[in-house]
Amino acid sequence: MTDDRDANTLSWTKVLFVSLPYLALYIASIILTGMTDAEPARATELWKLFMPFVALVSVVGGWRFSGETNKEKAIYVGKQVIYWGAVLIVINLLFMGDTPHFLNAESQGFVVAYILGLSALLSGIYIDWKMSVFGAFLIISTLGIAFLDDNAVLISVAGVAIAGIAVTLMLRRRGKAA
Q1: How many Å apart are CA 177 and CA 58, to the nearest integer?
Q2: Exposure winner among 3, 33, 132, 161, fewest CB in 10 A?
Q3: Closest by alpha carbon to 23, among 175, 127, 163?
Q4: Residue 151 DSSP label
Q5: How far is it, in rounded angstroms, from Cα 66 to Cα 171?
Q6: 161 with 52: CB under 8 angstroms?
Q7: How far apart are the C-alpha atoms of 110 and 117, rounded to whole Å?
Q8: So what's the pLDDT on residue 45?
Q9: pLDDT band at 82 (very low <50, low <70, confident <90, very high)
């Protein structure tokens, strides 16, 4: 009985530890989503600063799938650096030259959030499904800002709740199968 209880506690601790970086991304994206609606100029800069954290969580989240040997792990890290570096370059290219004059501050925030959401979604498809869920959440949240304006934060919170319920159901199903 004690072994089952210890194993159950260990598994929940492990799930919490693995999920904590993703939870931080969700919370930060909700805050940034609300800021994009309320303070678009400041939010655009914060979205650009948020991108390296998304990249870091993506790289760490996919580490267990990167291979067994040091060479495989080095190739994985190299590919991730190229991938996320390209995303950062594209985002920075959007703010060079005359491009910022064509977009207002709120539109700039949308564009950065959409690119970041798409990048996270694609990264998750190839590496870790949790990053895909986050990317989809980010895209949907940004759509909430664009189309539902005043309810964007509410939609983001609802999205987190739905994602939490989905993850909980998946964990329960996996626990019953084991």
Answers
A1: 28
A2: 3
A3: 163
A4: G
A5: 23
A6: no
A7: 10
A8: 84
A9: very high
